[in-house]
Write a structure and sequence with these properties.
single chain, 92 residues, mainly alpha, 53% helix
Length: 92
């Protein structure tokens, strides 16, 4: 079994909460989200399973997840599923 956990900076979490929540509920949700993030980070500070999603687009995040999980194939061609993710990213 492979597991990865997504995290984001406090500023990014606030931006996301404010984009999702409307009205007075935003402040309460931000308080809950911030508290959860602090507890999560305290427990997982050195974990290799945590991926920071701050300012990372979906394609790069997927590539990081594939690499971290060990699913990348060093022999597959860049741009193919699981193939050459480091080389493909470096070519950008």
């Amino acid at each position: 079994m492979t597991w990865l956990v997504l995290d984001a900076s406090d500023d990014e979490l606030e931006r996301r909460v404010r984009a999702w929540e409307i009205g007075s509920g935003a402040e309460d949700q931000l308080t809950r989200t911030s508290a959860r993030a602090r507890r999560f980070r305290a427990r997982n500070a050195a974990s290799p399973h945590v991926l920071d999603t701050t300012a990372v687009d979906v394609a790069d995040l997927a590539g990081q997840a594939i690499e971290r999980a060990g699913w990348a194939s060093p022999t597959a061609a860049p741009g193919t599923p699981g193939g050459g993710l480091q080389r493909a990213r470096a070519a950008r």
